[in-house]
């Protein structure tokens, strides 16, 4: 499975907070059996109302696990954070809904594939 050590640890820490209306998507899921690594973990909520509570709970879980979390861009329906730990840094993207995430993308309406990168060692 092409996950970095930090991504794997973050997913384990956050697993307890996932539910049918809070799920992992994006490159981490698309490339789970492939040769590519994703630079972030995308977490979607089925509603923007759930986003704030889920983001707070995830931040608490990650910092409780000894990871450093720094919030970056916070806007309506979206939050970005940088997670630092295990000698790695990764991005965590939280969205209030899958529709909101792609409606604001410049690639709206197009199909694209996840890009591959080699993680820093």
Question: Can you offer a commentary on this structure?
Answer:
This protein is α+β, with helices and mostly antiparallel strands and 121 residues long. It has a single domain (5-100), classed as Beta Polymerase, domain 2 (2-Layer Sandwich). The chain has helices spanning 5-14, 27-30, 48-64, 98-103; strands at 22-25, 40-45, 68-75, 78-85, 88-95. The chain has a five-stranded mixed beta sheet. β4 and β5 (88-95) form a beta hairpin. The radius of gyration is 14 Å and the shape is globular. The chain starts with a helix and ends in an 18-residue tail after the last helix. Mean pLDDT is 81; it is low at 100-121.
What distance separates the N and C termini? 17 Å
CATH topology: Beta Polymerase, domain 2
Q: Structural class, please?
A: alpha+beta
Task: Provide the succession of SSEs.
Answer: HEHEHEEEH
CATH architecture verdict: 2-Layer Sandwich
Number of helices: 4
Q: Strands across the major sheet, in which order? A: 1-2-5-4-3
Biggest sheet record: 5 strands, mixed
Which class in CATH terms?
Alpha Beta
Q: How many domains in all? A: 1
Report the β-strand fraction as a percent range. Answer: 25-35%
- Overall 3D form: globular
CATH superfamily membership = Beta Polymerase, domain 2
- Spans of at least 5 consecutive residues whose pLDDT stays below 50 are 100-121
What's the number of extended β-strand segments?
5
Average of the residue pLDDT scores: 81
């Amino acid at each position: 499975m092409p996950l970095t050590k930090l991504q794997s640890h973050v997913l384990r820490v956050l697993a307890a907070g996932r539910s049918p209306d809070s799920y992992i998507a994006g490159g981490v899921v698309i490339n789970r059996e492939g040769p590519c690594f994703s630079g972030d973990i995308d977490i979607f909520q089925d509603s923007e109302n759930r986003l704030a509570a889920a983001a707070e709970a995830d931040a608490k879980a990650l910092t409780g696990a000894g990871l450093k979390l720094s919030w970056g861009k916070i806007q309506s329906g979206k939050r970005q954070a940088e997670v630092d730990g295990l000698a790695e840094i990764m991005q965590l993207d939280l969205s209030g809904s899958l529709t909101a995430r792609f409606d604001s993308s410049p690639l709206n309406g197009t199909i694209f594939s996840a890009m591959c990168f080699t993680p820093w060692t």
